[in-house]
Amino acid sequence: MNPLEGFAAHLAGELGRSPHTVRGYLADLRSLLEDLEEHGLGVGDLDVPAVRAWLSRARDRGAGRSTVARRVAAVRAFTRYLHREGLLAADPGPRLSAPAQRRSLPTVLDEGQAEAALSHPVDGSPVGTRRRAVVELLYATGVRVAELCALDLDDVDRSRRTVRVVGKGDKERTVPVGAPALDALDDWLAAGRPDLVVPTSGPALFLGARGGRLDVRRAREDVHAHLRAAGLDAAPHDLRHSAATHLLNGGADLRSVQEFLGHASPRSTQIYTHVSVDRLRDVYRRSHPRA
């Protein structure tokens, strides 16, 4: 088996990486192997100098920190796999360091903007009904767009007001969902989904124009269109950022928000505390007499 094919199966099957991650890693590794071939080297010649030379050439072509960091992660996983399979005498991965990331604060809608977006009218077509349900559910649950597209009908528990979500690494979590989002879902299930369903639709909660499961690209387009119509310049993931920040602003503790978002580490969630502190500082400056 081709090493890349075996590695792809390892990523998806054993490590549970998402299709998006698998595609990204494989694209990076194809670039690495092509670079090796151009210099008369093969998979068995992978070592620290060869990888660093490849990364250096990528930086010279304008690759940013996040791109280089992703490439290092891909190479580490690949060389670990090759070494385990006996295709590489030594694993150079642990000696490869990724550039430090400058974490920018996420874009967050304030509560007024979120309300304006969610209350913006839509037409009564199946697409309009779906669009409202998608936007409501993304904000209500904080799920990722890919997680939303993977939902099935029985993942929504109307009586308990919860949604079962399968996140990164096939980790399952249950998140609460509010009445407005459930009402929007009810509208979609009653007056939107039936117009799109076909015999092969299966249990998918959200359907595309041809009756198949709604894909991530189309879902993002739905959200962009709705937010633009509401006069907002925001991305679908900003609804997730906003949901997390609004929870913290409302008094939720960091651990609860971590569970809500499905973060493996609290470090991923801590960025939202910075957003909340920045807002508190702005309010303080405007309101405190001795600020």
From TrEMBL:
The compartments listed are: Cytoplasm
Give Gene Ontology CC terms. cytoplasm
Q: Which GO terms describe its biological process?
A: cell division; chromosome segregation; DNA transposition
Signal peptide, first to last residue: none
> In its keyword annotation, does this UniProt entry include DNA-binding?
yes
Q: Which Gene3D superfamilies match?
A: 1.10.150.130, Intergrase catalytic core (1.10.443.10)
Q: What residue stretches are annotated with the Core-binding (CB) domain? A: 1-83
Which is an annotated GO molecular function term of this record? tyrosine-based site-specific recombinase activity
Q: Which residues form the Tyr recombinase domain?
A: 104-285
The UniProt keyword set, sorted, is: Cell cycle, Cell division, Chromosome partition, Cytoplasm, DNA integration, DNA recombination, DNA-binding
- The catalytic residues are R144, K168, H237, R240, H263, Y272 (o-(3'-phospho-dna)-tyrosine intermediate)
Role summary: Site-specific tyrosine recombinase, which acts by catalyzing the cutting and rejoining of the recombining DNA molecules. The XerC-XerD complex is essential to convert dimers of the bacterial chromosome into monomers to permit their segregation at cell division. It also contributes to the segregational stability of plasmids.
Self-association or partners: how does it assemble?
Forms a cyclic heterotetrameric complex composed of two molecules of XerC and two molecules of XerD.
Family, per entry? Belongs to the 'phage' integrase family. XerC subfamily.
Designated name of the protein: Tyrosine recombinase XerC
Provide the species name: Nocardiopsis flavescens
Q: What phylogenetic lineage does the species belong to?
A: Bacteria, Bacillati, Actinomycetota, Actinomycetes, Streptosporangiales
What gene is this protein a product of? xerC
